[in-house]
Structure formats: C-alpha cells, structure tokens
Amino acid sequence: AMYFPVGLGHAFVSLEDDTVMSYMLSGGYVAEHELALTALDPALGLPLPDRDRMILSDRDSVAPTLAEAAEAGTLPVYERCLEIEKAMYR
Fold this sequence. Notes:
Blueprint lengths: L57 H4 L4 H7 L5 H11 L2
C-alpha cells in the first residue's frame, strides 16, 4: 500500500497484460478536481520502459507537459493542498 498526499503526482506502469490496479480516494471522486501531466514529458525524467510500445489512456494521451500545465496555472498549489489535507483529519 502507498499513501499519496493531496496534490502529489503519481503514475503506474504495467509490465504485464491483464494487470489490475485499484486505489482509494479520501472522498468522493470529482472529475473536475483531477489533474494530469503526460508521463512522457522529458522534463519529468521518469524511467519509463520502451516508450514506443506504451499504451496510454485517452486522458493521458492528451495530458499537458509540466511546462504547459504551469503556463496554464493548473498545477496544484502547495499551501492549498496542505489546507485540504488538514481539513480531512479534523
């Protein structure tokens, strides 16, 4: 099990067919709150296997780069993430 605080980016890579990944949220799912970056962005430096053979979801296929998200102002704000985390445990 892994815990990812509010605002922390995360990704997974399946190296086998028929892999199942599941996760829990701290509250109800709200699509408008979900953010995405392309894992293929060289600026992230992720150690991804054979990028040419990767199968991406529709969402991940159109996700912005880190620079594009920063320019659009869509990256999480650390202080706001701390406020959300704090409110969850009151």
